[in-house]
Amino acid sequence: MPIARAAKRATARLGAVVLAGALLAACGSSDSSDSSDGAGGKVTLNVDLFGSFGFKEAGLYEEYQKLNPNITIKQSDTQDEADYWKSLQTRLAGGGGLADVQGVEVGRIASVTQQQSDKFQDLKEFGADKLKGEFAEAKWSAATTKDGKILGLGTDVGPEAMCYRTDLFKEAGLPTDREELAKKWATWDGYLELGKEYKKKAPAKSAWLDSVGSLYGIMIGQEEERYYDASGELIYDKNPAVKEAWDTSVEAAEAGLSAKLDQWSPQWNQAFAAGSFATIPCPAWMLGYIKGQAGDGGQGKWDIAKLPGGAGNWGGSYLSIPRAAKHKEEAYKLIEWLTAPEQQAKVFQKQGNFPSSTGAIEKIADAKDEYFSGAPIGQIFGDAAKEAPVQVLGVHDQNVMQQITNALSEVERKGTSSEKAWGTAKKGVDNVIG
């Protein structure tokens, strides 16, 4: 998720059923002497991920193991992507402790292709180049090096919407119809104004949104250029889009609209069920996370509306194979199957992770989610995916994002001034990227 996830993300993958058969055929070449763990050619594939990719929840591992009785899949998870990435960097540097499959968040993929291509397997050696026409150029090219190495296959993208609690809206005297709300908060100014109305009659211990960090993240996801320009120059400190997202987030904090919850913290997780906030900017991958945290008691209390300010993308991920992986050929067969249209559609139907495959997108176009009051999620997120800008990615995108959201947390939790907090963010960026 990931994010854990977020976001996060339209992209494309065509073709479908042939991949289910292709997974059964041998492809590529690797050292067969290193392909089995024990007698009978049994292989254990270790998959290391962050957030919620939804593979296990959608039953895909179980399905794959039935199709391939010689394969056992073991997944490990780290909830916070920043912690996951830090650990992965340590293991890549040492060359040990790596899984057969490693997840890579879209904000890190430029680092992989531009700075760590020697650490990851070129999937072209296993025939991945034949899939190029099945992905949109933006999704495909982001994981391809300048010299043509393919270092990851795309899983989901993160088209954005706004999730909200209809029961809390009713208590505060606000409308609950998703179409009406989309009109009222067509702009971010409108969203903040509605938040101020909510605050006047809000249920006890309930804020308008979870954190200003999530507000900032969803706003910056609406921009083509964020932290880097197309030439690779770092521009975050002079980009008017970053300043607008920062200023809007600061305004929300100073107006007391935030529950002041750090995303992915235990307190934030508990708040979904407790009703501690009425709205949360939600990329598609957030839907499964909300269900997991709010539980059965949240069903029918949530709904989804179009995002203020236009379409955007937050997050999305890739599956990559380290060069030091023990079972590269088997790992490739697995990730090709997991990212095929039919499997992506299943993950969306179970978890809400929006597919990067056009074949899967067609399958889920009419999908609705009863947990979210029957919201037409296929249409809402499908439209957002089509309209979202193709984002410029830089090698330290995720690091810059983290420093800015950390600084915004100081504004909402400690009352730090906007100017001082921005100075802290800039120092943090300088320290992280050197």
TrEMBL record:
<dbReference type="InterPro" id="IPR006059">
    <property type="entry name" value="SBP"/>
</dbReference>
<dbReference type="Pfam" id="PF13416">
    <property type="entry name" value="SBP_bac_8"/>
</dbReference>
<keyword id="KW-0732">Signal</keyword>
<dbReference type="InterPro" id="IPR050490">
    <property type="entry name" value="Bact_solute-bd_prot1"/>
</dbReference>
<feature type="signal peptide">
    <location>
        <begin position="1"/>
        <end position="25"/>
    </location>
</feature>
<protein>
    <submittedName>
        <fullName>Sugar-binding protein</fullName>
    </submittedName>
</protein>
